[in-house]
Design a protein that fits this description.
Elements: E1 4-10, H1 13-22, E2 28-35, E3 48-50, H2 58-68, E4 72-75, H3 78-82, H4 85-91, E5 96-97, H5 105-108, H6 110-120, E6 127-130, H7 133-142, E7 147-151, E8 160-162, H8 166-178, E9 189-193, E10 199-206, E11 211-213, E12 218-219, E13 222-224, E14 228-231, E15 236-239, H9 246-266, E16 273-282, E17 285-292, H10 300-303, H11 311-320, E18 334-341, H12 358-362, E19 367-371, E20 374-377, E21 380-383, E22 387-395, H13 398-409
Helix pairs in contact: 7-8
Length: about 425
């Protein structure tokens, strides 16, 4: 049987991890990444290589997939989902893994997602939706207790403002609705009650009917140690999280994931792909903070190294509506990833800085370095983004995985590089001095 050719859309650490995992399948001959990064930029003839098509160029991606003769496309980030890439590829007769534009509204419209959760009885924070600035301002002034202000549309993970007091809520509304901090993503705003408790990530495969969970994970959003500083796209993660017991996982599947998939099917927009629920474990029980319509980043970098079953087999089963037939197996142990970021991230940062120590890090037993904001420049790999690398370690337990990941990080150097030294702290792990 001839080897299959796949295409992954995206340019981050998630996409590098997907390519790394998919090329392990005996069925796969090559994985093309559009547009990819320095870690997926192999020479022609190597199993993983980049093709020049931007993740938000739907027509260009369709042309690239046709020209390359791929028989399956896997969508990584949310923007092409919002643009309807799955619908376009389906219409062209291509196999594609990811939800349709209508189904992806669970992520691309927070207002849609909140209304959907209320209708489906999925536990979430109380909220109100606004398009009028004065009405929103009046609402926050009359609401007791701390609030969260969210731009409804996609804002590159930056459209959520957690407010400690009324002044911050008022400022957030002004920035989003008046100053246009997030552009059109802020045309609709959600104001919701601020919940408290630890956050966990639950991702699941689904074919539109069956839901099979992945190992649970915890992300670290704040840029600095001790959960200080602004939110980022994620500074590290670990899996599995001990906070999610078997009973809690069963509850989440029963009250969140399956109702979401069933509800989307009932609306005539069946959800096929990866469904990601950001959950907060509050004193009153679990609550959904948000849904994402794809693999998370950096959660993917700790989940996929623990997956035993052929990922391509799972994806094919999702597309063909036979996920219930697949035995999804996970290796024992744990994985942790530490993100090496550019100086200034999540604000402004320089690009083009040479990165040293990549081979040394990859040679540490149990370590895999996933590239995110990198590119190749002549003989060097250089920085090309805010989150530059995700250094993942796998071990028999969380302590071993974290020690492995940090041993890898310590081999890597570029000007201004910074990373959190307390990944895993929420699970009780302490970094060595």
């Amino acid at each position: 049987m001839p080897k299959r050719s796949l295409m992954i859309i995206g340019a981050g650490g998630r996409e590098h991890a997907l390519a790394w995992k998919l090329v392990q399948s005996a069925q796969v001959g090559q994985v093309l990444v559009a547009p990819g990064n320095g870690g997926t930029d192999g020479a022609p003839g190597t199993p993983i290589r980049n093709i020049p098509a931007a993740a938000d160029d739907v027509a260009g991606l369709l042309d690239a997939a046709r020209h390359a003769g791929v028989d399956l496309v896997v969508v990584g980030p949310e923007v092409p989902l919002a643009l309807g890439i799955v619908d376009r590829l389906h219409a062209a007769g291509l196999r594609v893994f990811g939800p349709t534009q209508a189904a992806a509204r669970l992520e691309t419209s927070k207002a849609f997602a909140k209304d959907f959760m209320r209708q489906a009885g999925i536990p979430t924070a109380g909220y109100a939706v606004f398009t009028d600035y004065a009405a929103a301002l009046d609402y926050v002034r009359q609401t007791a207790g701390p609030l969260v202000v969210k731009a409804s549309g996609l804002a590159a993970g930056k459209g959520v403002v957690v407010c400690d007091d009324l002044a911050q809520a008022e400022q957030a509304l002004f920035d989003i609705m008046q100053a246009g901090a997030f552009g059109a993503a802020g045309d609709v705003v959600i104001v919701e009650e601020r919940l408290t408790g630890p956050e966990v990530s639950l991702l699941a495969f689904t074919d539109g009917r069956t839901v099979l969970p992945m190992v649970t994970a915890q992300d670290h959003k704040r840029v600095f140690d001790g959960d200080q500083g602004p939110n980022t796209g994620g500074m590290g993660a670990f899996a599995p999280t001990p906070r999610v017991t078997p009973a809690l996982l069963d509850e989440a599947l029963r009250t969140v994931m399956q109702p979401a998939v069933d509800g989307m099917a009932a609306q005539g927009t069946p959800y096929v792909g990866v469904l990601y629920a950001g959950l907060m474990l509050t004193p009153a029980g679990l609550r959904v903070l948000e849904f994402n319509a794809r693999f998370g980043d950096p959660e993917t970098q700790v989940i996929l190294p623990l997956l035993e079953t052929d990922l391509l087999e799972i994806i094919d089963a999702c597309i063909d509506g036979r996920l219930a037939e697949v035995d999804v197996r996970w290796t024992p142990g744990a994985a942790a990833t530490v993100v090496a970021a550019s100086a200034g991230y999540p604000g402004n940062y320089a690009k083009g800085l040479p990165i040293r120590g990549l081979e040394e890090a990859d040679s540490v037993p149990g370590v895999t370095v996933f590239h995110a904001g990198t590119r190749r420049h002549q003989a060097d790999v250089v920085t090309d983004g805010g989150r530059v690398l995700a250094v993942t370690g796998v071990g028999a337990d969380l302590a071993a995985a974290l020690a492995c990941a940090y041993a890898g990080v310590q081999q890597i150097h570029f000007t201004g590089m910074h990373y959190r030294r307390d990944i895993g702290r929420q699970a009780g792990w302490q970094a060595p001095p």
